[in-house]
Design a protein that fits this description.
It comes from Mesorhizobium shangrilense. The chain is of the alpha+beta class. It is 35% helix and 20% strand. The protein folds into two domains: 4-268, Jelly Rolls, CATH 2.60.120.10; 272-360, no CATH class. The structure holds fe (ii) ion.
Length: 387
């Protein structure tokens, strides 16, 4: 016998199926699926940092709203609509890429044209790169709340640009097919609801679940709900107003908009997730290098690694409160998780790479390799190491 919460989730999945036939579930599948559901839990900074260190997706209710005064006194939904109204009045001539669901076409539109499309409600569309920083949107939305532990902002210009702090708009029925992103992400919902389905990228590829960013595809990435359900890393959630989804970068995701959605999203590197992200980027290669034919982003991992290393060294001389705000206390847990997760061959490769080792050596953890082993190369401007 299902309770009211499960019935509501089943209805949400049934609605998702009307937009995407691959969400093909029986009631028996749903019973299995409930074991993979990520429920919303009350936000605390510690809970967020623990999720980052453990690489577990989390839905956190009650994250401080990023809406600035005077709109912050409105309810989230009214604030979202006021922001879209400001977009409609904007004279900003910059254009942003909008994806149309009907034919997958991308069109470039100005903010006032996006607002017009939103109000007309005649097209199913989505936009995820309406940048907030250094645009009129920054007067309305404060990036600091969602990004004050983001070490990307302390790195080079190129690394900072990976934050991609954005206003997200998505019409009911929009489907974003299976893909992954470079850093971990946060998604704060102001209005609407989305279904997120996610799984470990490489376990998924082995099980036949495709990822548009990790494969060269000419068709929609293949998704099979039974194959997904068979994977230990399979997770799903519904994100609604006042929820923030934290999603680790190693999770490929498929997203279906259940009700017209407005939110704020961004990517980040912080102390609790820095080791796992840098390990993956070195070992798998970051997505930002995929089409970087001029190698203009070749140094980004090193830039980010140096910013992390400097932060760790600086925090040793700061008050505990400063370290606590940045997740300094979660470094040990993140290191233990990396040691437990990575095979020795991969750890040996990472241990010879200063972009990983310069951080790892500054964290007290049972590293399986000696500090006496030489590095394969040196990073420029690297602060002296301390163990
Ligand atoms: Fe994404």
């Amino acid at each position: 016998m299902w309770d009211g919460g499960q019935e509501a989730l089943w209805e949400s999945l049934s609605k998702a199926r009307s937009f995407d036939a691959s969400i093909d579930l029986s009631r028996i599948d749903f019973d299995h699926m409930m074991a993979r559901y990520v429920p919303p839990r009350g936000y605390s900074r510690e809970r967020l940092f623990k999720a980052m260190a453990d690489r577990e997706p989390a839905v956190l209710a009650g994250y401080p709203s990023p809406v600035r005064p005077p709109l912050d006194v409105l309810g989230l939904c009214d604030a979202a609509r006021s922001i879209v109204k400001r977009m409609a009045e904007s004279s900003d001539e910059s254009t942003y890429s909008v994806t149309m669901r009907a034919d997958g076409r991308r069109v470039q539109l100005r903010p006032r044209e996006i607002a017009e499309l939103w109000h007309k409600q005649t097209e199913v569309f989505g936009i995820s790169d309406l940048y907030i920083r250094n645009t009129f949107m920054e007067e309305l939305i404060d990036p600091s709340g969602l990004s004050n532990f983001n070490l990307l902002l302390k790195a080079s210009h190129g690394a900072r640009s990976q934050e991609m702090f954005s206003f997200v708009i998505s019409a009911e029925g929009m489907v974003t097919d299976s893909h992954s992103d470079d850093p971990d992400s946060s998604n704060f919902c102001l209005e609407g609801r989305k279904l997120w389905i996610f799984w470990d990228t490489y376990a998924g590829l082995a099980a036949g679940l495709q990822d548009a960013e990790r494969l060269l595809l000419t068709t929609i990435p293949r998704f099979d709900i039974k194959a997904w359900l068979s994977m230990p890393s399979a997770r799903w959630c519904i994100v609604g107003p006042n929820d923030t989804l934290f999603l680790p970068a190693n999770f490929t995701h498929k997203v279906i908009t259940l009700e017209n959605y407005i939110g704020v999203g961004g990517f980040y590197v912080s102390l609790p997730n820095c080791l796992s992200l840098i390990a993956d980027w070195i070992y798998r290669g970051p997505l930002w290098s995929k089409l970087d034919r001029k190698s203009s982003k070749a140094m980004l991992i090193g830039d980010i690694s140096l910013a992390v290393q400097k932060t760790i060294l600086r925090l040793r001389d700061c008050s505990p409160a400063v370290g606590q705000a940045l997740g300094y206390g979660f470094l040990d847990l993140s290191a233990q998780n990396v040691i437990r997760r990575l095979p020795r061959s991969q750890m040996a490769m990472l241990w010879s790479d200063p972009r990983f080792r310069n951080i790892a050596e500054n964290i007290a953890a049972p590293w399986p390799l000696s500090n006496d082993l030489p590095l394969a190369f040196q990073l420029g401007n690297s602060p002296s190491r301390r163990s």
